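Protocol step 4 of 6: structure prediction from sequence.
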Amino acid sequence: MAKEITQSKGEKLFIVFLRLTMGWTFLYAGIQHFGDDKFVLGFLTHVKTFHDVYAPLTNPTILPVLTFLVEYGHLLIGLSLVSGLLVRVSAPFAVMLMLVYWTAHMDFPYIEDVNNYLIDYHIVYAGVLIYLIAKRAGHVFGLDGVVERWHLPEHYPVLRPLVG
């Protein structure tokens, strides 16, 4: 039932390279901010274009929950991409995070500074993550492929959409 992946050795190495580098980017972000309860507040206070959208998130009752979600979200996305497990689940969340960061850094039409007109690295990262989803990157030297080879999705159908 496994969908056959028809990629050259070079393309497989490229997919693994992208998956590992994106995974490390998220993993390092999670490690770097782990235990720092001020980074989300600092980030949200510098929003310009969509200030009215992001300002309510600085509410003292919401901020600790949001900080926890961002902190552990980065860690889990990074671990998922590095290991190749549940990439189909984690990569869409990573794309959403990249789009949130892109809009949060926006001072329309510039992103962060005058050197980035409409597009910055967040959009590039989102594109790479979409490519990884399309290429089933977890199956290329990743644990998603191992789980599928063990025929676990056949025995536990709930796993099929997660690793398929």
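Step 5 (inspection) to follow. The chain has nine helices and three strands.
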